[in-house]
Write a structure and sequence with these properties.
171 residues, mainly alpha, Serine Threonine Protein Phosphatase 5, Tetratricopeptide repeat, two-stranded antiparallel sheet, 8 helices, 65% helix, elongated
């Protein structure tokens, strides 16, 4: 019985570390989508068939994202959204995958939807700030950057320096 509990405990710990509750950030300097500091969040576990479908696709999307398969990741995050249209994490994550593919308009749309669904969700503000800056919209980038920071978010030093240099220190 003790062996079964230890095995189960080890499996749950491994899942939490490697699987469903991973929070990954991609550190980097500059605004190249492949090196920017995005925040992608995995699914929260919930009961119910609809939520289980969303969670399953969030986990698959996160796994594909972590392998660099952004197109596959967007498909899974889209399926998560179909299963749970109010899933702000899924919109944020799909936006990050779009950003990695250089599809800034789609990314901004997804970050905005994540914020609409959960205005207290800080990460989409950070991610949208980077997308705005890539589009040379320093004003909106600064607004989102300040909002993220005011919410307690910790921006990557590289992105903060990049934003400050592009805006002449106005952020």
């Amino acid at each position: 019985m003790l062996t079964k509990r230890l095995f189960l405990y080890a499996g749950v710990c491994l899942f939490l570390i490697v699987g469903g509750f991973v929070v990954s950030s991609y550190m980097g300097v500059g605004l190249d989508p492949s090196s920017a500091n995005y925040v992608i969040l995995a699914a929260e576990r919930d009961s119910g068939a609809k939520s289980n479908q969303a969670s399953m696709h969030m986990e698959k999307g996160t796994a594909e994202f972590n392998k660099g398969n952004y197109e596959a990741a967007t498909r899974h995050f889209s399926e998560a959204i179909k299963a749970d249209p109010n899933n702000a994490n899924a919109y944020n994550n799909r936006g990050v995958a779009y950003s990695k593919m250089g599809k800034n308009d789609r990314a901004i749309s997804d970050y905005s939807k994540a914020i609409q669904l959960n205005p207290n969700f800080a990460e989409p503000y950070n991610n949208r700030s980077m997308a705005y800056l890539r589009q040379k919209d320093q004003t909106r980038a600064c607004v989102d950057f300040r909002h993220y920071r005011d919410m307690g978010g910790t921006p990557s030093p590289g992105f903060a320096r990049e934003l400050e240099s592009k805006t002449g220190g106005k952020c």
